[in-house]
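Hey, quick one: can you model this chain's 3D structure?
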Amino acid sequence: MFQRYESIGAAENHRHVLHLIPKAPARVLDIGSGRDAAWFASFGHRVIAVEPTDALRIPAMARHPSPLIEWLDDSLPDLVRLRARGETFDLVMLTAVWMHLDQTQRQYAMPNLASLIGSGGTITMTIRHGPVPPARRMFEIPAEETIALAQAHGLRCVLNVASESRQERNRAAGITWTNLAFVKADASGSFSR
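Sure thing. Here's the predicted structure for all 193 residues.
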C-alpha cells in the first residue's frame, strides 16, 4: 500500500485545493501521508506528519528525510500527543483518512481538528467512496454530514468537489473521491477565503 500511495504525485492528487495552500513558510499538519509532508516541506513549510501505523510512517520517514518534517506517532480521533503541544496550524490536510473513522469517532475528531486550526486557517480532506477492500475498515460518508459537522465547530465549507480516482484500478472498481475544504474565521470573525 505504501508503494501504491507514493506512486501518485501530490500536486496532481491535490489539484482541487492548490489555491487554498498558504504561501511558505506556513505551519502544516499532514495527517496520514508521508508523501504530502515531503511535498509541503519542499516548498519551505514546517510540517508535522501524523501517522499511527509503523508500516506507513517508518518507510515514509526513510523515503522523505527533511529537517522541516517532524514525524509523530498519533491518531484520530483523539490526537492526544499533538493536542498536548498546544500548537495551531495554517493548514491541516487529511488525505484518505476521514472514511476510516466511524460516526462517533468523526463527531469526536472534528472539534479536535478545529482546535488545531489557527485564525483564518484551512482544513482539507479527501474522502473515498466505493467498494471496501477485504480486511479494511472504511465507512461511506456523505459530504453533507462532514460539512454540517464542520459548521457546528466554526468551520465554513469553501470546497466540495467530487472526482474520480487517480488510480486506474480504483476507477475500474467504481471508486470516487470527495474533496472538501473548510476555513476558520479570522480574529475579526470573518472568513478570509
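One thing worth noting: Residues 103-115 form the longest helix (13 residues).
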